[in-house]
């Protein structure tokens, strides 16, 4: 797992005021949101199938790598619904252990136009998931 | 475009505007391959407060209407999403009602919320409530579900469609091999009402030396609905019947409806345990059915009820009588659950999942009690994500026996199998008889004379022709099964002119069993269907994106059924990128062109892709008989390979790797066929291998 945490933090927090204005986030919430991105990615570095979670203004966006070519997206204004209740999934196919252990090879980019653009997953070299870059765009 | 604050303020009381969380959220997600190829771009999502059913509230769940919208580039095409019988192949520019609806336009809609895009991804929409999908309208795809507390979906990427199906298989489960007899021919009719009638039909097949694998005991077989018995007046010795049929190499498929009428022996117990599907106030729901005759459905989303249901089937039909397979009819369930409560939650919230649980009850019971010793086959009328893992074959429900439905059925099946569930078939040739006026005449002179079977067809004078054309197509469906509401429905029922043509295709079905069975084994391994819409194998040919009446049957055959009454030819587009052979004449043709194929009534337009290797088996009457490989046909023009799989056809031992595998490889440049692995023929290669056109 290779994640450029330092770069992520610098870029995201370096443009914090702009983000704060656009989304009327209080500074501590902005820091929290940024931290959650980082925490999510850090968790993914340890357990590759753990979801990457963004929380923003009461919205929760979760990306969960399932296999090399499968990514799960869960979005909700209810955090519990977005990040838990896995055991109620009707798909209920026990994924092969080696399947879940595989990181996704797909890339996913989050944006909330016109302010946020955030690369959440991007393969750098197999089997690494990604680096993360949160950039402000206007 | 933005509106000013006053405008928004004035609108708010009327339309809700952005208040109450109704406005689209602009959290967007862009998915790409590692190489940067764009797959999918979600632009917005919504959660709109909705009524929460008490049973869901008790489970701590709030209800919302949830939705997400995605970009829909002009050149993107869409397939899958279960069963729609409206004649659509490419689902672009259509609105899909993703919920089970027996009475839908054309024929039953079945919801399997898995869509495959021509841009190299699949999308599994993880919400079992009624879902509406609009594709391509205003440059957007919108997915909207009636009840949910989150937007949840999976993106499955693949360089090929088969890689996407491998992902679907990983997520939702394996398509197991069916009993080998099921790949042969299933004879059914609505209904064979007595043991004698059923046995007469089976014996006639054997006397005429016609192949037959399975015969069907349809519904109305019990003394009362819910007794879970067989009426002894009409079925005096079911065990003896099955013994005799098995000795003839014929298996049986028994229909068991999930309804329980009041006054039958299990009703009170089921009612007291809350195992009958009911409304929130506890009243059982029989829908439009006669309460005292048919009654409500058992709730197999309840694990205890599901176990009981299977154990009763086991102990009342399978063990004592020797029935082989179970037809789980009325699978939606047929009583609209919108106002009901399932064990797992409210009907609105779990609207589409009953087929998954209902088929699982019997599949899992079989595996629990019989281990690997016997394969499961369940015939079911509705499906859902993952229902392919339950030993299931899905049929296209009770459709009309018309030319129109023949035409609509082909893309219906292609999109169903494109939904990741390889086993689908139709009633050959339609279920309901259309209303035929007394002065009816076919538009063109019927190509099959039915004057000798007027007692069967009435004045539907072109029905024998329709049956023949449907039967020809049926020989190239994943499962071949004749069924429908008719007095007679066998190979010999439609007149002297029809019978030899029907027999020809029935025998061809069995001759191709080594090929079909091997294709099915590949589906088991990969999750990809072997009844394949053309987009799967020819992604670089834009002309195949919306062809509703041609498909690949396994890797070799392009099938182009005739769907017009009186037609003796039809146009066929041969996909670009390879050459093709006319199966009947061996004429070699270039791909990328539309030809006019001769199609006299005894000819199904059938083409073989250059580079194909097709093993053919010896004549057999059933799959208990040993079938040898009598011919291996090679169609040169490209390198090719084929993996031939053979095993006992009855057990799950293939899951442990048993069975014989032979790799056949054609080197086009060297003009040589190699084979390694298990030997499959005893003679010399020269005596078996035919290079077409040589």
Please state the overall shape of chain B, judged from the principal axes of the Cα atoms: globular
Biggest beta sheet summary of chain A: 3 strands, antiparallel
Oligomer: heterodimer
What is the count of DSSP helices of chain A, taking H or I runs of 4+ residues?
5
Biggest beta sheet summary of chain B: 8 strands, parallel
Separate helix tally of chain B = 14
Give me the secondary-structure category of chain A. alpha+beta
Number of strands of chain A: 6
What do you see in this structure?
- The complex is a heterodimer of chains A (138) and B (694).
- Helices cover 35% and strands 27% of the residues of chain A.
- By secondary structure, chain A is an alpha+beta fold.
- A 3-stranded antiparallel sheet of chain A has the order 1-2-3. In chain A, strands 4-5-6 form a 3-stranded antiparallel sheet.
- Chain A is flat and about 30 Å long.
- The relative contact order of chain A is 0.20.
- The N terminus and C terminus of chain A are likely disordered.
- Chain B is α+β, with helices and mostly antiparallel strands.
- Chain B contains 14 helices and 34 strands.
- In chain B, strand 22 and strand 23 form a beta hairpin.
- Strand 3 of chain A pairs antiparallel with strand 10 of chain B.
Write a compact overview of the structure shown.
The complex is a heterodimer of chains A (138) and B (694). Chain A is of the alpha+beta class and 138 residues long. Chain A has helices at residues 5-14, 16-23, 27-46, 79-83, 97-101, and strands spanning 52-56, 59-67, 70-76, 107-112, 116-121, 133-136.
């Amino acid at each position: 797992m290779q994640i450029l945490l330092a770069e992520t933090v610098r870029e995201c927090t370096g443009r914090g005021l702009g983000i704060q204005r656009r989304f009327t986030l209080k500074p501590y919430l902005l820091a929290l949101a940024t931290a959650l991105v980082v925490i999510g990615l850090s968790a993914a570095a340890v357990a590759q199938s753990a979801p990457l979670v963004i929380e923003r203004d009461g919205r929760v966006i979760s990306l969960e790598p399932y296999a090399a070519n499968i990514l799960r997206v869960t979005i909700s204004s209810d955090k519990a619904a977005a990040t838990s209740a896995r055991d109620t999934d009707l798909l209920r196919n026990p994924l092969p252990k080696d399947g879940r252990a595989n990181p996704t090879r797909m890339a996913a980019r989050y944006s909330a136009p016109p302010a946020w653009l955030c690369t959440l997953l991007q393969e750098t070299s197999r089997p690494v998931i990604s680096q993360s870059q949160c950039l402000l765009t206007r | 475009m933005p509106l000013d604050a006053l405008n928004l303020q004035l609108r708010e009381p009327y339309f809700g505007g952005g208040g109450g969380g109704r406005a689209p959220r602009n959290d967007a997600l862009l998915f790409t391959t590692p190489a940067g190829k764009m797959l999918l771009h979600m632009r917005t999502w919504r959660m709109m407060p909705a009524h929460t059913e008490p049973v869901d509230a008790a489970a701590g769940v709030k209800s919302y209407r949830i939705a997400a919208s995605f970009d829909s580039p002009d050149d993107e095409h869409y397939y899958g999403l279960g069963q729609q019988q409206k004649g659509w192949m490419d689902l672009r520019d259509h609105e899909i009602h993703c919920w089970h609806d027996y009475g839908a336009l054309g024929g039953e809609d079945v919801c399997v919320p898995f869509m495959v895009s021509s841009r190299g991804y699949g999308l599994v929409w993880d919400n079992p409530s009624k879902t509406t999908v609009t594709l391509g309208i205003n440059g957007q795809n919108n997915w909207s579900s009636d009840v949910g507390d989150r937007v949840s979906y999976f993106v499955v990427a693949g360089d090929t469609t088969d890689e996407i199906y491998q992902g679907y298989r990983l997520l939702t489960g394996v398509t197991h091999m069916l009993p080998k007899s099921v790949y042969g021919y299933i004879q059914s009719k609505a209904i064979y009402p007595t043991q004698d009638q059923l046995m007469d039909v089976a014996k006639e097949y054997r006397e005429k030396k016609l192949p037959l694998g399975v015969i069907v005991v349809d519904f109305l077989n019990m003394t009362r609905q819910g007794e879970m018995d067989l009426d002894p007046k009409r079925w005096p010795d079911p065990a003896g019947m099955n013994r005799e049929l098995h000795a003839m190499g014929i298996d049986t498929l028994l229909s068991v409806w999930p309804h329980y009428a009041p006054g039958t022996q299990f009703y009170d117990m089921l009612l007291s345990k809350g195992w009958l599907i009911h409304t929130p106030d506890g009243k059982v729901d029989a829908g439009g059915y006669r309460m005292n005759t048919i009654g409500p459905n058992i709730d197999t989303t309840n694990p205890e009820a599901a176990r009981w249901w299977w154990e009763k089937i086991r102990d009342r039909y399978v063990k004592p009588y020797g029935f082989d397979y179970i037809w789980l009819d009325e699978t939606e369930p047929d009583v609209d659950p919108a106002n009901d409560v399932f064990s797992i939650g409210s009907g609105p919230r779990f609207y589409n999942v009953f087929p998954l649980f209902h088929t699982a009850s019997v599949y899992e019971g079989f595996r629990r009690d019989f281990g690997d010793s016997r394969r499961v086959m369940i015939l079911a009328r509705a499906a859902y994500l993952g229902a392919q893992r339950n030993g299931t074959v899905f049929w296209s429900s009770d459709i009309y026996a018309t030319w129109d439905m023949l035409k609509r059925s082909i893309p219906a099946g292609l999109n169903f199998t494109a939904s990741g569930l390889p086993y689908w078939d139709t009633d050959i040739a339609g279920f309901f008889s259309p209303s035929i006026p007394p002065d009816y005449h076919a538009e063109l002179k019927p190509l099959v004379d039915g004057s000798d079977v007027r007692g069967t067809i009435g004045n539907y004078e072109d029905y024998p022709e329709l049956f023949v054309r449907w039967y020809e197509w049926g020989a190239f469906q994943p499962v071949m099964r004749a069924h429908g509401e008719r007095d007679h429905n066998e190979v010999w029922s439609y007149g002297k002119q029809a019978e030899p043509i029907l027999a020809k295709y029935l025998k061809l079905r069995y001759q191709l069993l080594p090929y079909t069975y091997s294709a099915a084994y590949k589906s088991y391994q990969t999750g990809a269907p072997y009844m394949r819409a053309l987009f799967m194998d020819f992604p670089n040919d834009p002309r195949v994106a919306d062809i509703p009446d041609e498909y690949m049957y396994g890797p070799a055959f392009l099938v182009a059924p005739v769907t017009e009454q009186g037609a003796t030819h039809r146009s066929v587009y041969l996909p670009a990128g390879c050459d093709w052979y006319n199966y009947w004449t061996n004429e070699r043709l270039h791909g990328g062109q539309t030809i006019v194929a001769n199609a006299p009534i005894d000819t199904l337009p059938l083409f073989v892709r250059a580079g194909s290797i097709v093993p053919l088996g010896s004549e057999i009457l059933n799959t208990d008989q040993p079938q040898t490989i009598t011919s291996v046909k090679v169609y040169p023009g490209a390198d090719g390979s084929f993996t031939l799989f053979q095993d006992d056809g009855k057990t799950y031992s293939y899951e442990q790797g048993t069975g014989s595998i032979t790799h056949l490889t054609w080197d086009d440049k060297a003009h040589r066929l190699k084979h390694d692995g298990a030997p499959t023929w005893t003679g010399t290669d020269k005596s078996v291998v035919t290079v077409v056109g040589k």
